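Subject: Re: docking follow-up (adenosine-5'-triphosphate)

Dear J.,

Thanks for your patience while I sorted out the input files. As discussed at Tuesday's group meeting, I've set up the holo structure prediction with adenosine-5'-triphosphate included as the bound ligand rather than trying to dock it afterwards. The sequence and the ligand SMILES I used are pasted below, so you can double-check that they match what you have on your end before we go further.
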Amino acid sequence: MTNTVLEIKNLKAEVEGKEILKGIDLIINSGEIHALMGPNGAGKSTLGEVLIGHPNYKVTGGKIMVNGKDITNAPPEDRAKAGLFLAFQNPITVSGVKISSFLRMAYKNLYPEENMSLKDFFNMVKAVMKDVDIDESFISRSINDGFSGGERKRFEVLQMVILKPKIVILDEIDSGLDVDALKLVSAEIKKMYNQNVGFLIITHYQRILKDIIPEFVHVLKDGKIVMNGDRTVSDRIENEGYDWIKE
Ligand SMILES: Nc1ncnc2c1ncn2[C@@H]1O[C@H](COP(=O)(O)OP(=O)(O)OP(=O)(O)O)[C@@H](O)[C@H]1O
Ligand SMILES: [Mg+2]
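The structure tokens for the complex came back this morning:
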């Protein structure tokens, strides 16, 4: 199993001229589970978007590196090729692009040397759809078009499993999922964890962290990581909120 390390060094970023990330330091190795918590508006989603290279955000300082390679200004495709994947908090609708063609294209871009037949590829996709309980008929639907909140989250997980990333950022994957779906999603995360994938799980709730126990819990407040600890931190947040954590 190959190892991958994502290193974030003093990362600063702004959107619309407003500084959101104010110097983030974080290292995520493959095979590690990190949780990222913090109040609304702290910058958690911004961090995810900046890591995968969303064009709305401007990096104004610091570095993002994967296995020592600087990807701070790399296009999103290169970051995906380096092994990064983000499941969005609010996955957007892409009308007119079918899930089948999107997945096939994304997979081909990532693994051009594999030359998997169309039949084998879609058999693989269907097997994962079964695992996350998405009906096969979804394969010919447009991306997220008319999807319910939970269906959108399941589709993010489907992409995660199909695209075989090395470091996964899950932005509130647990919000909007019903109890059964959360179990299925947790099972997929565990499978990938056992295959040495590293995770950054952004969440507000203990529920998912009871199932997938993080080794590290980080708290982001006003664009800065104000605490690095273990799972006891998330226990305390559940009971006491964020007031006890000072910058
Ligand atoms: N395009 C934008 N223009 C202005 N401000 C923005 C823009 N995008 C994000 N922000 C601001 O950046 C801050 C951080 O947002 P972000 O989505 O990263 O928070 P979060 O920690 O993920 O919060 P939540 O827990 O609610 O998901 C917020 O105050 C938000 O309003
Ligand atoms: Mg968010």
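A couple of observations from a first look. The helical segments are 44-52, 76-81, 99-110, 118-131, 149-163, 179-194, 206-211, 231-240. The two ends are 38 Å apart (CA to CA).

Let me know if you'd like me to rerun anything.

Best regards,
T.
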